[in-house]
């Protein structure tokens, strides 16, 4: 019974595997500490890229609205507001990245690099 508790794959010849791209393969613990940070980094990178693309789209639509306003004060003000909101949003995203980077440097943990954090936690 002790052998079964220590060797979870003893009931079959195949290692434990999860479902999907996060599914764990041969080295259960090692894979967790490499897959999870990679997924988190991928999500952060994707959201940052999506925020930048959203900024470009809003900037472009604001510029088109401004050009096609025909001198109407209300339309120009709406276009200006859209452009300013896009710039403020981009600044907030960049400020958040800088904030987490600075906080991580101050406390000695690289928050944006979870792989290094998790490897330090392993025995």
From TrEMBL:
This is Uncharacterized protein. Keywords: Membrane, Transmembrane, Transmembrane helix. The chain crosses the membrane at residues 39-67, 87-109. InterPro entries: T4SS_pilin. It comes from the Bacteria. It holds the Pfam family T4SS_pilin.
